[in-house]
Amino acid sequence: MCVLNEASGKIHVAKTPTTPDPIDGVLKGIEAGGVALRDIILFSHGTTLATNALITRRFPPAIMVTTKGFRDVIEIRRGTRDDLWDTYKEMAAPYLPRRDRLVVTERIDYSGKVISEVNEAEARELARVIRKRKVNNVAICFVNSFVNPENEQRMRDILLEELPGVSISLSSDIMPEIFEHERFNTTVANTVLGPVAGQYGAELESRMQDGGYSGEVLLLHSGGGVMTAKGATKFAARLAASGIAAGAIASRFISELAGYKNSISLDMGGTSTDISLCSDGHLHVTNDWHVEYGYPIRFPSIEVLTIGAGGGSLAWRDKAGALRNGPQSAGSTPGPVCYNHGGTEPTNCDANVFLGRLGTKLAGGKVELDIKLAEGAINRVIAEPFGMDTEEAALSILKVANANMADAVRLVSLRKGYDPRDFALVAFGGAGALHGVALARDLYIPVVLIPPNPGVTSALGCLLVDITHDITQMYTDTVSDIDMTELNNAFRVLEEDGRDRLLSEDISPDRMLFQRYIDMRYLGQWRSMSIPVSADITNLDEAVKQFHEEHGREHNYSRPDAPVEVCRIQVKATGLNRKAELAKHELRKAPLPAPIGQRMVRFDEAPQRIKTPVYDRSTLHAGAVVEGPAIIDQLDSTIVVPPGIKAEVDEYLIIKMHVPQLS
């Protein structure tokens, strides 16, 4: 829980144990934050509710109604596999089993011409079956409905006549795009999550209002914006990547405060690390994501790469005798060996504790760590099998973890045509600040930024976003043949849809913004790139030029002489919210406070342990400079400042470390 006092700009952090009812957990977190509900101006939060529901299949019964012959589209998938070489690995089951996928005779051709209207007798028989099964949630997914929704709308009308009050999602409303597998699956996911998200949002809002909160409950969605509780009911699948988006948003905010438009986000927690890239102030967005492989959700989402590297990731020896790190994790139970809760396999946390980088007391002294237990596990599992001493083994564990994270950063940067040397690394999460400088050295990143509260930086991201909706429509034509009047009119229709959505969420017109995008591709290609365009389009020359440049950067391939095709248009409708602001402090040249202690620490740069001062971050003023070697402790994280590195505290209390590369 992250509480920001608008008057002072100070952040207060609170953590509470997980509760069986997530709403109880939210309310207890607010209580622990020391703020009354009536005093809250803006409440926004990310949730894993939708993600967990999809993974566990814990959602209300639902029915999919589709065109005869297309019942198994979402089970056949694309025929690809998560692990291409493991033919025995079972794929996850579809969100709806075959018995819950019903068919009706209807057909629309590729151009939108109605070949066969909905067979009403079959439609009413389906309604009888749905009534008998007592199902209240229906997804209607007809082939080619993206170009003409007439038959889907007729099927909906019949079901509403026969089943008053049933909740119905149309694929032509949810995702009006070609590629039926992606469209069908997004609609199905949205349908099964609608009751889950709707009930959660409504109940949370009700309980908070009963306690005195007078504003809207805002839920963070995959695209980096928020929805009201009402909006979450209709577009629930957008919550399936709610949690990870917040860290990327906060990372961009921190880097821009520190003066960097280009940044790479390293959000390292206990089990995993989330990595994203911000270029020239813009976070990368993708339409190609999933909770489980094979079941895509095509709502726009901030592009975040997650790998199994966290403080609790296990170090182990594979069958070929190589040292590995993760993705297996000790989890919260039993946790790292040093927690003395029954863990037996060494983790990154154990290595950091043994090397002195992490103290033996965490969370303000509430958690005590046992170095001897960590040393024994490292020695038994890694040092002895590899013929190393224990210290060398601990260093090796962390080097492998850093190498895994560096490879992931290369995937979001170098693979996309970006040079890490042009970026700042924002390291946060409970463990990010322990590894930031080492990772920057591996990747030749020149500067590392540590937010004021690394452990709750993702929560801060929830206070930095607006209400957003992404409205799309297929629009296929070559650039040379497009009628600009027709194109502008198509955009206006989408903008009107966005305006209606925002009005339904009580957003006044003066708080609305609309940004247009055109998806372009080379004629004959399948995949496209989204290019922003102006409000009133007179020609697409500048957009085509940008498309060639972006295509060349990301794919190392560009053909300026080749014909370009428009395949989709999109409008991002934004309702502006109040944003959090960090307090700005005057830079002072004052003596450093005395260290709160010392300990012997082994760094990568030194052949032996060094007596290292430990500072309390809360005592470091704006303008303070801590010269490494040093350790900076705080309630929610620990910062490692290696020898030769200076940690400078800026006016927003962000710690900035410039990283010269070792020769």
UniProtKB/TrEMBL annotation:
Keywords from the UniProt entry: Hydrolase
Class of the enzyme per the UniProt entry, highest EC level: hydrolase
EC annotation from Swiss-Prot or TrEMBL: 3.5.2.14
Domain Hydantoinase A/oxoprolinase stretches: 183-470
Top-level division of the source organism's lineage: Bacteria
Domain Acetophenone carboxylase-like C-terminal: 484-657
Protein's UniProt keywords contain Transferase: no
GO molecular function: N-methylhydantoinase (ATP-hydrolyzing) activity
InterPro entries: ACX-like_C (IPR049517), Hydant_A_N (IPR008040), Hydantoinase_A (IPR002821), Oxoprolinase-like (IPR045079)
Domain Hydantoinase/oxoprolinase N-terminal span(s) in chain numbering: 2-162
Protein's UniProt keywords contain Hydrolase: yes
Protein name: N-methylhydantoinase A
